[in-house]
Automatic annotation (TrEMBL):
Keyword tags: FAD, Flavoprotein, Oxidoreductase
Taxonomy, superkingdom: Bacteria
GO molecular-function term, one example from the UniProt record: oxidoreductase activity
Full protein name: Tricarballylate dehydrogenase
Length: 470
């Protein structure tokens, strides 16, 4: 069964897809958006977001001070260890300085950014009401502009003709369009694909201990089908936005509230009672998204954040209370850790601490000496009862394996850009994020390339209409 053709078909229902649909419609194209989820779960991972990272050369509305291009680039370069396309990264950075007025036009409202524990008052613009409010605003705007929206519409196949989009399939239904934007997310909810990527350790599938912070609907069906069809891929399937989250979090859609933000204020140990990484390497917004991957590499894919009473009040309180004990040996016993090993780890850490002037808002001079791994900043001895612990597991938000693009967001086949098939959001984020993460950059990538993809798809549809009429 064939459905009526539109100019631009957008596959996906989150931020990138909505930006593409709105831009294409503003350019005069007829647009249909296909969201795999039911209406009440629409928006994908974007519903769980709160902000986007923005370049600015001086104070701008809700942004204070300045965050120039070069500093933004250096931040991105550091977290990705250089695994990024500089041209596309800088395009994203520059676009982040001019998108907010367009977002406001479509109903998005901003609030003064949080300060204190999150340290993002200068770099990130926060959405009033969070990501759910942003998604709802975009859907209202899309409906008002005449975008056709279909829910419960999971596309399972794409028809191509030598790199040109022809149609999308939902079961037996065939939907044609002059151009198409793919923005259907990664494969973080596909347990079998995660198993394949991460493999086994000691006969156990590593990915079986992963929790999914985001939507259960991102199965990677389109991503896999495009790669199988010869689209150029980019990225490592094990690289992802992966946060160490409360081990008691739900399997899906736990979102931001499952985070535990006290890691930098204490020590992190594995189930053998050993530390395994520098907890004070850098500010938490620049490092929180590496800890899921770090925990994933530890035995049983679990870690324990250990703090004492001096840390209380210095981080966002978690939703779930931690394990509490009046002594460290009692804490170890409650966690099921080897008491002797755990106490040795704490004693070695405490003895290595060189306490200067503690200040969690700067990269302070409280550090360890002669300890491996070191703690570079905010190193205070664990010596003040009561003591607290939080069991943490890898929480996967989105995956970085994606489709290679150029500055026009075009999908590539054998190095050649498609004339009418474009991609945005998680399905191409690996072009900019080869590894690592810094707070808010995912929404920046989605907004930038969603807008580019929508604009280019409208142009491609216009060319197709002219060609058909000739």
């Amino acid at each position: 069964m064939d459905s009526g053709a539109v100019d631009v078909l957008v596959i996906g229902g989150g931020n990138a897809a909505l930006c593409a649909a709105l831009m294409a419609r503003e350019a005069g194209a007829s647009v249909m958006l296909l969201e795999a989820a039911p209406r009440e779960w629409r928006g994908g991972n974007s519903s769980h977001t709160r902000n986007l990272r923005c370049m600015h050369d001086g104070p701008q509305d809700v942004l204070v001070d300045s965050y120039p291009e070069e500093e933004y680039w250096q931040d991105l370069l550091k977290v990705t260890s250089g695994i990024t396309d500089e041209k596309l990264a800088r395009l994203t950075i520059r676009a982040s300085s001019t998108c907010r007025d367009w977002m406001r036009k479509h109903g998005v409202r901003f609030q003064p950014p949080l300060s204190g524990a999150l340290h993002v008052a200068r770099t990130n613009a926060f959405f009033m009401g969070g990501g759910k409010a942003l998604v709802n605003a975009y859907y209202r705007s899309a409906e008002r502009l005449g975008v056709q929206i279909r829910y419960n519409a999971p596309v399972d196949a794409i028809e191509l003709d030598d790199g040109r989009f022809v149609a999308a399939r939902i079961g037996t239904e065939r939907i044609t369009a002059r151009s198409c934007v793919l923005a259907a997310g990664g494969f973080e909810s596909n347990r079998e694909w995660l198993r394949e990527a991460w493999g086994q350790v000691n006969g156990e599938w590593v990915a079986d201990n992963f929790l999914i912070r985001g939507t259960r609907f991102n199965m990677g069906v389109l991503l896999k089908s495009m790669i199988d069809a010869g689209a150029d891929a980019i990225g490592d399937p094990t690289q992802c936005h992966s946060v160490a989250i409360d081990a008691r979090a739900p399997l899906y859609d736990g979102g931001i509230c499952t985070r535990v933000d006290c890691v930098s204020l204490g020590i992190m140990v594995n189930r053998n009672g050993h530390r395994f990484y520098d907890e004070g390497e850098d500010f938490w917004p620049k490092r929180y998204a590496i800890w899921g991957r770090l925990v994933a590499q530890e035995p049983g894919q679990i870690g324990y954040s250990i703090i004492d009473s001096k840390a209380i009040g210095r981080f966002m309180p978690p939703v779930f209370p931690g394990v509490k004990a009046q002594t460290l040996p009692e804490l170890a016993r409650q966690l099921g850790l080897n008491e002797t090993t755990f106490m040795r780890t704490v004693a070695e850490y405490n003895a290595a601490c060189r306490v200067g002037t503690f200040d969690h808002s700067v990269l302070d001079d409280c550090h360890t000496e002669g300890l491996t791994p070191p703690k570079t900043h905010w190193a205070l001895p664990l010596d003040t009862a009561p003591f607290y612990a939080y069991a943490l597991r890898p929480g996967i938000t989105f995956t970085y394996l994606g489709l290679k693009v150029n500055e026009n967001a075009a999908v590539h086949f054998g190095g050649q850009p498609s004339p009418n098939l474009f991609v945005a959001g998680e399905m191409m984020a690996g072009n900019v994020l080869g590894k690592g993460y810094t707070a808010g950059v995912g929404m920046t990538i989605g907004t930038t390339f969603g807008r580019i993809a929508g604009k280019q798809a409208a142009k491609a549809a216009q060319r197709g209409a002219i060609h058909a009429a000739a």
